[in-house]
Structure formats: structure tokens, C-alpha cells
């Protein structure tokens, strides 16, 4: 029986209106009633998650900014955060300016957003009152506590921009992208991923990979989907993600996540296992897949050997 459901938001369980579909909400509620936790795992900043609170009838936790921030939705409180090493930022910005002169840059910190003057609006739900505009090299304080740097170059193929930024960034940071139609590369602390943070969150609670069902649609979801024992790429998702994960559920418009949760809960009930039960209901290969995933949370990530929530450089919430 699964003990935890981890799901991406945009394109997975949320549409452009940032609303859950009714069947999805019913599936989440059924999971909670069965003792299965639901954790949201998103590239979005925690500030953008306020509209979720009014839609949920229970408290939940969100792993935000591609794994950099753990946020308690019910208490409206940051539990932990992992920031980009400030020592690598100046050289990285200089390299990006030199090689991508037409790109606009932005930095997301816990309490503020710093953007180039040419940075466009990326989401209508941006609610932070603390947006500082100006050349990033001039307005970004050394101690800002950056959880994510963003690189945007309109008119560029999203995949090509991601690959170029990854090449320029090297191994001192992590690079991913999360929006299929937007040329936007996202940079975080070295080794950071949704999968790594989720794995640590689960380890602290005694939850094994094979007891986790995860859902996502974009490259920033891949590490999470490969780690979870039941990792599902959305059939409507990025083709490379579908190929790498090797298992899909129906797309967003078909309530694919809800369908799969309903099936997993029914299988667990049929097996006579409670929420804390250890029996697996998928094929035996799933258990092996989950165990192997624990050793490869993401290519280049540190093994999930200890259960501490944050590494050196991580800041506890105020």
C-alpha cells in the first residue's frame, strides 16, 4: 500500500486557472481519509501557492522551487530552505551575460524577487510586494539567500535554452526547466532536485521509495518520478520525461492523477492492507524500481543516506 502521494502541480493536477478539478480533489480527500499523505512538489515559489489553501479541506506540505523550499500550506510557514552558494553567483552571472546577451535574468529569494528591467511577467499569480528591478549584478545583495536563478530568452526554443544554460552553468549548480512552451531555464543549488528533497522528506518519516506514488510532466519532475516506486509521467507531458520514466498515467484533461490514485487505493483495500501496510500492489518490478531509485535520486545527486532535511547552506525558516 502506498503511504504518500507526491504530485507536481501545473499540467499535472492544475490547469491554467490554477484550480483543481473536482475529481482530483475527491481523490486527494480519499487518500487522506485512507491515511495516505499528499505532498505537492512544484517549481513554483511558495508565494504562488496561496490560492491552493482555499481549495483544500486538509492541511498539506508543498516542496517548492524545484526542491529548494519546504512549505507548510496549512500554517503558511516555511519549514526549511536550501539556497544557491553565493560564492558561485557572480561568476555565473558574468558567464550568462557574455554568452547569452539577449537573455533576461531573475533571482528568487525567500522574501524578494530581483529582476532585470527587461524581465517579463511569467505568471499572473505573482503576488510578492517585494520585486526589485534593475541589472541583477547591481540590485542582488550578496546575502539575499537565492533559492532559484532564472534565465529567460524569448524567441528561443525552450529545450535549446535549457541545454545551453546547463552547459554554461557547469557542475556548481543544478539546471532544469519546467514550462514546455516558455524559454525559461531554472538554476538551483548543486545537486538540487524535486526528487532529492522528496526522498529526504520521506526518509525522515520512515517512508520507503516503493511506498510513494509520484506524478509529473516536465524535466524538473524526472528525478522524483524515477525515485518513487510508483512514478507516473503524464501522457500529456514532455516526451523525454515519458521516455525516461517508462510509465504513464492518462493526461490532465482525463483526470489521470485522480484515476491512478483511485486505482491504487482500491488495490490497497483489496489487499487488506492499511495505509501503513508494506504490501505492494503493482508488479514486482515496481519494488525493484523503487529500491534502485533510492540509489539514483537524480544523476549526480548525493545518495539519500541520512535523513537530515537540509545540507550545509540550508536555512531554517524564521
How many distinct domains? 2
What's the β-strand tally? 15
- Which bin fits the share of residues in helices? 25-40%
**Backbone CA Rg:** 19 Å
Description:
- Pfam families: Hydrolase_3 (PF08282).
- This is Hydrolase.
- Residues 270-318 are annotated as: Disordered.
- InterPro entries: HAD-like_sf, HAD-SF_hydro_IIB, HAD_sf.
- The chain is of the alpha/beta class and 318 residues long.
- 29% of the residues lie in helices and 21% in strands.
- The protein has 10 helices and 15 strands.
- The strands form 2 sheets. Strands 14-13-12-1-2-3-4-5-15 form a 9-stranded mixed β-sheet. The protein has a 6-stranded mixed β-sheet with strand order 8-7-6-9-11-10.
- α1 (22-33) packs parallel to α9 (256-270).
- It is globular.
Strand and helix map with partners:
Blueprint lengths: L3 E4 L14 H12 L3 E5 L8 H4 L7 E4 L4 E4 L4 E6 L6 H11 L4 E6 L3 E3 L15 E3 L2 H4 L6 E7 L5 H12 L3 E4 L7 E6 L4 H11 L7 E5 L5 H6 L2 E5 L4 H7 L2 E2 L6 H15 L13 H11 L19 E3 L2
Parallel strand pairs: 1-2, 1-12, 2-3, 7-8, 12-13, 13-14
Antiparallel strand pairs: 3-4, 4-5, 5-15, 6-7, 6-9, 9-11, 10-11
Helix pairs in contact: 1-9
Amino acid at each position: 500500500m502506498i503511504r504518500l502521494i507526491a504530485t507536481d502541480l501545473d499540467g499535472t493536477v492544475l490547469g491554467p486557472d490554477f484550480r483543481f478539478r473536482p475529481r482530483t480533489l475527491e481523490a486527494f480527500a480519499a487518500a487522506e481519509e485512507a491515511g495516505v499523505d499528499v505532498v505537492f512538489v512544484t517549481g513554483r515559489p511558495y508565494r504562488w501557492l496561496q490560492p491552493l489553501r482555499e481549495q483544500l479541506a486538509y492541511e498539506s506540505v508543498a516542496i517548492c522551487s524545484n526542491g529548494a523550499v519546504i512549505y507548510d500550506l496549512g500554517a503558511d510557514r516555511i519549514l526549511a530552505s536550501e539556497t544557491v552558494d553565493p560564492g558561485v553567483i557572480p561568476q555565473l552571472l558574468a558567464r550568462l551575460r557574455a554568452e547569452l546577451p539577449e537573455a533576461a535574468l531573475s533571482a528568487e529569494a525567500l522574501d524578494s524577487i530581483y529582476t532585470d528591467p527587461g524581465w517579463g511577467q511569467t505568471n499572473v499569480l505573482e503576488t510578492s510586494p517585494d520585486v526589485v528591478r534593475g541589472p541583477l549584478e547591481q540590485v542582488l545583495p550578496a546575502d539575499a539567500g537565492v533559492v532559484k536563478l532564472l534565465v529567460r530568452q524569448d524567441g528561443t526554443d525552450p529545450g535549446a535554452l535549457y541545454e545551453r544554460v546547463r552547459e554554461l552553468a557547469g557542475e556548481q549548480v543544478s539546471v532544469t526547466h519546467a514550462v514546455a512552451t516558455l524559454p525559461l531555464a531554472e538554476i538551483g543549488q548543486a545537486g538540487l532536485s524535486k526528487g532529492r528533497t522528496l526522498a529526504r522528506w520521506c526518509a525522515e518519516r520512515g517512508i520507503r521509495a516503493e511506498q510513494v506514488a509520484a506524478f509529473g510532466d516536465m524535466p524538473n519532475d524526472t528525478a522524483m518520478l524515477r525515485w518513487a516506486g510508483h512514478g507516473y509521467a503524464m501522457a500529456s507531458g514532455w516526451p523525454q520525461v515519458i521516455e525516461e520514466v517508462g510509465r504513464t498515467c492518462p493526461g490532465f484533461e482525463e483526470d489521470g492523477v485522480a484515476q491512478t490514485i483511485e486505482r491504487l487505493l482500491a488495490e490497497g483495500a483489496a489487499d487488506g492492507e492499511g495505509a501503513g501496510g508494506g504490501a505492494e500492489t503493482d508488479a514486482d518490478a515496481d519494488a525493484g524500481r523503487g529500491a534502485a531509485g533510492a540509489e539514483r535520486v537524480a544523476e549526480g545527486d548525493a545518495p539519500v543516506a541520512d535523513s537530515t532535511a537540509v545540507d550545509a547552506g540550508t536555512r531554517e525558516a524564521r
